[in-house]
């Protein structure tokens, strides 16, 4: 049995490689993406778009985050909370602040949070989600649920006060989703993804 060629940069099958969709963005604030290991090889995973596009980002594929990451700079967690959150638009963040985004389904993101007690203690940052998720292949049960790349887009654009600077993130995401939909049999696509 032959193995499909794989892109080592974007970690997707060569036929689904997203590297040509990536636009480099020099973002001010560091974004740490803690990715649940089960998400690493998903064809429709969106965290890789963030890590390849944002020059000031790091993708950590693990269930636990080494505490040394939290000692490096003031750190905030992007995660829904019933506790008070600091708005990404607040302008209260120092230039060396960093932000953690949990990548995985809601269940997996919650697991990451539970396995990392230090993350639970971090101040939460909130984003304003302006439209329903465009993640046409995966559906969220949460009304404000968005993909990792959409969450990263809202976070970075609201922190820096510029949506236009980060729109290439959403363009790459849309192109990736369009490609995946085109790979499906037309009957499945019509039935499930109208």
Output the radius of gyration: 17 Å
The low-confidence parts are none
How many domains? The number is: 1
Mean model confidence by pLDDT: 86
CATH topology heading = Alpha/beta knot
Q: Count of DSSP E strands?
A: 8
> How would you spell out the order of helices and strands?
EEEHEHEEEHHEHHH
Report the major sheet.
6 strands, parallel
Write the CATH architecture name: 3-Layer(aba) Sandwich
Q: What is the CATH class name?
A: Alpha Beta
Quickly describe the structure:
It contains 7 helices and 8 strands, in the order E-E-E-H-E-H-E-E-E-H-H-E-H-H-H. The chain is of the alpha/beta class and 194 residues long.
3D architecture notes:
- This protein is an alpha/beta fold and 194 residues long.
- The chain has a single domain, classed as Alpha/beta knot (3-Layer(aba) Sandwich).
- The protein is built from 7 helices and 8 strands.
- It has a 6-stranded parallel beta sheet with strand order 4-3-7-5-8-6. Strands 1-2 form a two-stranded antiparallel sheet.
- The chain starts with 5 loop residues before the first strand and ends with a helix.
